[in-house]
TrEMBL record:
<dbReference type="InterPro" id="IPR014729">
    <property type="entry name" value="Rossmann-like_a/b/a_fold"/>
</dbReference>
<comment type="similarity">
    <text>Belongs to the universal stress protein A family.</text>
</comment>
<feature type="domain" description="UspA">
    <location>
        <begin position="162"/>
        <end position="287"/>
    </location>
</feature>
<feature type="region of interest" description="Disordered">
    <location>
        <begin position="288"/>
        <end position="310"/>
    </location>
</feature>
<feature type="domain" description="UspA">
    <location>
        <begin position="17"/>
        <end position="154"/>
    </location>
</feature>
<dbReference type="Pfam" id="PF00582">
    <property type="entry name" value="Usp"/>
</dbReference>
<dbReference type="InterPro" id="IPR006016">
    <property type="entry name" value="UspA"/>
</dbReference>
<protein>
    <submittedName>
        <fullName>Universal stress protein</fullName>
    </submittedName>
</protein>
<feature type="compositionally biased region" description="Low complexity">
    <location>
        <begin position="300"/>
        <end position="310"/>
    </location>
</feature>
<dbReference type="InterPro" id="IPR006015">
    <property type="entry name" value="Universal_stress_UspA"/>
</dbReference>
Length: 310
């Protein structure tokens, strides 16, 4: 595959924003590296591998110390995995790849790096008892606070299936719809758009003055106009959205969802979003749902700190 056959879509300032992958030596992190390489092949961007060491003032953590040398070895293994996946894809041009050790708290470092990233990829453990109970604190915090899309990469339980796009309101739906359509086009899969009904229930009282209850067909069709080969099936979810979306996710190969804000507590994720990033049986791509994502993140209980490089 050469440059003429790759379907890059980034342009302008976004064209050189890197895809940042958090690396920690785990099989899940290596899976995230390979996932990121596949994304870079489809939509060209630099690839940046980052390993975060605790900022501890002890010899082992300083440059040249035992922990630092181990981190460099972990990065080297991740780099080899990225280059191998790139080569196996048949791409003839060189991969724009960098790697580095950064000192700090992992979630804060990755959140800060997300300001200037195209997106961030993190590996997550496969579904099991423990991962059903708790998602890694770093992945959860970065998912909540990042300034760019975040991919939580799990091994999908099915090899092929539709891309499930979950949307809540017309004014936050566009980023998730675009990301879902791009992913489906690259994979050759269909898209299921799950529109969560925000109006009254069938038996509840109607309240005037509320927001538009569902993403309209016209908006989906308008967003789809640049993806003529993608097949889309809209579904309206009424009632228990958490349970219904969890059921629908079982047949998906990828889930795309916006960061739906809990209006009373901006530092918290809405129930459907939280359920999917913790329990989904496939990779999840979490999209910032509005231009003020940074403001929302700033209101969260966490304060970001600048990463340290040495």
């Amino acid at each position: 595959m050469d440059a003429s056959t790759r379907t890059g879509e980034r342009s302008g300032a976004d064209a050189r924003k890197p895809v940042v992958v958090g690396v920690d030596g785990s099989p899940a992190a290596l899976r995230a590296v390979r996932w990121a390489v596949t994304e870079v092949i489809a939509r060209p961007a630099p690839l940046r591998l980052v390993l975060v060491l605790p900022d501890i003032d002890k010899p082992a953590f300083r440059p040249g110390g035992g922990k630092h040398r181990a981190a460099l070895g972990t990065l080297a293994a991740a780099r080899r995995a990225a280059l191998s996946h790139w080569s196996q894809a048949g791409v003839t041009e060189p991969l724009d790849l960098t790697d580095e050790v950064v000192w700090g708290q992992a979630d804060r470092v990755l959140t800060t790096l997300s300001r200037d990233a195209a997106w961030v990829a993190l590996g997550c453990a496969d579904i099991g008892f423990f991962s059903h109970m708790v998602l890694g604190s770093t992945a959860l915090a970065v998912s909540r606070d990042a300034y760019c899309p975040v991919a939580l990469v799990r091994r999908a339980e099915i090899e092929s299936g539709p891309v499930l796009v979950v949307v809540n309101a017309w004014y936050t739906a566009k980023p998730a719809l675009l990301a879902g359509f791009r992913a489906a086009r690259a994979r050759g899969d269909a898209v299921v758009v799950a529109r969560i009904w925000q109006g009254r229930t069938w038996t509840g009282a109607f309240h005037y003055g509320g927001r538009v209850p569902v993403v309209p067909d016209a908006q989906i069709a308008h967003t789809l106009r640049d993806f003529p080969t993608v097949t889309v099936r809209p579904v309206t979810v009424v009632g228990d959205a958490v349970e219904t979306i969890a059921y629908m996710s079982a047949g998906a190969s990828l889930i795309v969802i916006g960061h739906d804000v809990n209006r009373d507590h901006p530092e918290r994720m809405a129930p459907v979003t939280r359920e999917l990033i913790r329990h989904a049986p496939c990779p999840v791509l979490l999209m910032p749902d509005s231009p003020d994502a940074a403001d929302r993140s700033a209101r969260s209980a966490r304060s970001s700190s600048l990463p340290l490089t040495r």
